[in-house]
Each structure stands twice: as structure tokens, then as C-alpha cells.
Amino acid sequence: MDRPLVITEDHDLLDDLLRIAAAAGAELDVAHAPAHARPYWNRAPLVVVGDDMADALASTGPPPRPRVLLVTRTCDDPDTWRRCVAVGAQAVLELPAAERRLVDEFADVVEPPAKPGLVVCVAGGRGGAGASVLAGSLALAASRRRIRTLLIDADPLGGGLDLLLGQEESDGARWSDLVAREGRVSCTALQAALPTFAGLTLLSFSRGEVEPIPAEAMRSVLEAGRRGFELVVVDLPRHLDQAAVEALGRAGTTLLVVTADVRGVLAAAQVLASLREHTGEVRAVVRSGVLNDDVVTGSLGVPHGGSLPDQPRLAAALDRGDVPPLGRRTSLGRFCAAFLHERLGADR
């Protein structure tokens, strides 16, 4: 694969550009003179010209091409736009102010735009409804069907999805390593940094004191997830924070797990009111109880997303550190298979 081309003799500027490219997961070809750039000029997906080399490059008459950027660290230089036109650049980027834009430009050429992955949020209508189990089961079922899947733990007080799935000892980054992230994150770098098992990539919390996820960090992770994965499953807290709102704004579907009893429905109604402020489609997944599914969904005024009868020995399996049993004879397995078939056409 051809790499972006940088043309500069300014070592300080080159250091900045290498750092910015690394943030986007990009490797560069570097030319310190116009003659060195000639073999790469037409085939590089992106050309970044330092303003120190613009006049020398223009004097060689390079053929016109798209995606040429002139980069400068000099504010208010009246000659900047003349040099931009001379080299056929489409824009002038002034560093450090334009670093985020340049990260995006590099990332676009190493991660070509693809159909964005489906984001599914899962929330519990009340504590103990089983939302985390459903989120983890859905992600596992997808990965077993060879669907590229990212599972995101967005509940700081949920105990950790890595623990639920028996992966608390797995090597890899946790939210504490990512909370300072802003701007674009390479999906390749994200997947490499996170624990992956059975084809499933997981972002969870560390043990001990937990800080809220900044909205900017969640936004960066979600956008990387949508570029690099077919399915992104987010386990939400019941009390929505800024990070949860970011996820809901990108959700194609939100599943609200409701226990089929009066208290469960009343609690779910309160959670539903918050969800509806930030997302479109919400479906009720009904845990078996004293009320019929129609009564539950009719009381809440939401479509029926499926039923989850009690699954014997599930709690004991999870306490042993086993992954949720997802065979076709289990209620969780049947639900996940039906959902993935409907939303992703997955019969794998």
C-alpha cells in the first residue's frame, strides 16, 4: 500500500508530522528535496508539503494532483497563499492549530471510508435486570459468527464486563488508559491495544477507583469502532452520563431490558424517558415474570424486542467465570441469533 508523502527539510516540522501521522496509525515516505519526491508524487494517496520546500517544489513544475496540503508553523505570512497556489495545494494547515485536521487527513488514507458499523446500546430497566449479561452475550454471539465486534463497557459502576466474561486477567488497555483521548483514533491501533478473545475486542474498566468517561474519549472510541468493526455493543449505565449520551446518539438500536413485574416496568419507564431524549429506536427485551410481554410493551409504549425466559444455571455459570452459554437451546442463544439475523443478516 502506498504511503502519504511528506516533502520538507525542516527537521522540527518533520518531527511534528511524524508524531501526527503516528497518532493516525500512518507511516510516511519522506523527501528532503523535490527530486527525491518525484517517484512518489503521483502514487502517494496524500502529499504534505512543508512551507520551507514549497518554492523549490514549485520551480520543478509538478503535475497537478488531488490531496496536496501545505503545512506551515508561521502565522500571518503573506506569502503562504502564494506558495499554496504555486504547488497546487488544496489547503493550508497551520500547526499546531490544525493538528487534529491533519490526523484526520492521514487517517483517511490509511483507513479508507467503509460502511459504518452498527452501534447497539443495551440498558437495564432496573438494577439486576441483566443488561450487562445481554450485552456481553450479544457481542460474543456475533464474534462467534465471525462478525467483527467491539464490546464497550460504559457503566463505571457495573463491576466490569471483563470480569463478567472471565477476562479480568487479559492483557490490554482499559478505560483508564484512554480517558485522555481526543480527536480521531486509528481503529487498527485501538484493536491492537485492547484485549481480544474468541474474536471479540473488549473495552472495560480497571479494578479500583473509576473515573467517569469523558464525552470526547467515548466519541473517539465510538468513531474508531464504527470504522473498524461491523458491530459495536455498548453496555450503558442506568443513570446516563455524557459518555452514555454520546453512545446513544450513534445507536441504530437501543435494547431496554425490562423485568416483567410492576416495579420493573415502573423503573423501566423512568429509564426509557431518559433514553428517548438522546436516541431514536428503543425496543423492550422482556425478562419473564408475572406480566405478559404485551402488557409490558403496551405500558411502556415501545416495540417488543424479544423475550428472555429464565435460563437455569446461568448465574452459577457466570460465578464460575464461564462465558454465558449461547447454544441454540438456550434463551440467550436464540435471542442473539434472531437479533443478529434481523439487523446484520447474520446466519453464520
UniProtKB/TrEMBL annotation:
Gene3D superfamilies: P-loop containing nucleotide triphosphate hydrolases. SUPFAM superfamilies: P-loop containing nucleoside triphosphate hydrolases. Pfam families: CBP_BcsQ, Rv3660c_N. Residues 7-114 form the Rv3660c-like CheY-like N-terminal domain. InterPro entries: Cellulose_synthase_operon_BcsQ (IPR017746), P-loop_NTPase (IPR027417), ParA/MinD_ATPase (IPR050625), Rv3660c (IPR022521), Rv3660c_N (IPR059050). It comes from the Bacteria. PANTHER family: SEPTUM SITE DETERMINING PROTEIN, SEPTUM SITE-DETERMINING PROTEIN MIND HOMOLOG, CHLOROPLASTIC-RELATED. This is Septum site-determining protein Ssd. The gene is ssd.
